[in-house]
Write a structure and sequence with these properties.
CATH class of the largest domain: Alpha Beta
Number of domains: 2
Largest sheet: 6 strands, antiparallel
Order of helices and strands: HHEHHEEHEHEEHHEEE
Number of helices: 8
Low-confidence stretches: 1-12
Number of strands: 9
Structural class: alpha+beta
Strand content: 25-35%
CATH superfamily of the largest domain: Chorismate lyase-like
Helix content: 25-40%
């Protein structure tokens, strides 16, 4: 079920941007601008000039310029002295290069009225074979495993299995797990990694694999055997190129279709 016209209209209505506040990072500014672009909040798909954006968001023109350069590099906007900053109309939440800033929840919310998440954490003595190979760890390394399923209008659409060595995880999270307390994770593993001291995720390498549910194997998305779907395998790296987490995602592509954006 797609979103109702009134819901889409509400997302598309132009309006004032939320102020970020002084001292905010350029990436935070990029996220705010990207979200406004995804909601089509700029009249005529044209962004205001840099001084106006800086005033609306409460940041410096230098920060705005850096954010716009990032969005241009991602292929979200095009910029020219004669016509300013224009949103590329084909850009959507399913664009591959936006996956770091736009998570699966936002991608589903763009087209469905109700999106909910079921998730849990567990600590295992060691990771799965693929995770251990990707991260270069062995069976003596305890692993934090995050199971997460996203439902769109009541139907499971995306399942994520994320693995990270327990020693990398923030002390507060480890303490909660040890006491059996519930751990709330942000929408994306990039946000979650901000609580991993010295091991924040900088970038990921994603392998997209067309797959079919095998005979005799259960599917976390309740798809019958023989159903085609997409599998994503991700290795997440720090800015120093250290692999720190491994993810496997199963995507029902009747809910989400990815698009690869090329730019010059």
């Amino acid at each position: 079920m797609t979103a109702s016209p009134s819901r889409r209209s509400a997302r598309s209505a132009p309006g004032a941007l939320p102020r970020i506040g002084q001292g905010s990072l350029a990436e935070q500014t990029t996220v705010v601008l990207l979200e406004a672009i995804m909601e089509r909040r700029f009249a005529g798909d044209r962004l205001p000039n840099e001084p106006d954006l800086a005033a609306q968001l409460g940041v410096s023109r230098t920060t705005i310029r850096t954010a716009l350069q990032t969005l241009e590099r991602l292929g979200v906007v095009s910029r020219a002295p004669s016509r300013g900053t224009q949103v590329r109309p084909h850009i959507g939440r399913e664009s591959i290069l936006l996956h770091r800033l736009i998570g699966f929840r936002e991608m589903l919310e763009a087209h469905h009225d109700e999106v909910r998440v079921e998730q849990c954490f567990e600590v295992r003595d060691h990771g799965g074979e693929a995770a251990m190979a990707a991260l270069g760890v062995g069976t003596s390394t305890p692993m934090l495993v995050h199971h997460k399923t996203l439902f769109a209008d009541g139907t499971p659409a995306v399942h994520l299995l994320q693995e990270v060595p327990l020693e990398y995880v923030g002390e507060e999270t480890r303490r909660k797990l040890a006491k059996g307390h519930k751990v709330e994770a942000p929408d994306t593993i990039f946000e979650f990694s901000q609580s991993w001291p010295g091991r924040e995720i900088d970038h990921s390498v994603v392998e997209i694999v067309p797959s079919v549910v095998p005979e005799g194997a259960g599917s976390p998305l309740s798809m019958p055997p023989g159903t085609p779907h997409l599998a994503l395998r991700e290795i997440h790296y720090t800015s120093g190129n250290e692999p720190v987490a491994y993810s496997q995602e199963i995507v029902d592509d009747s809910f989400i279709r990815f698009r690869l954006v090329r730019s010059r």
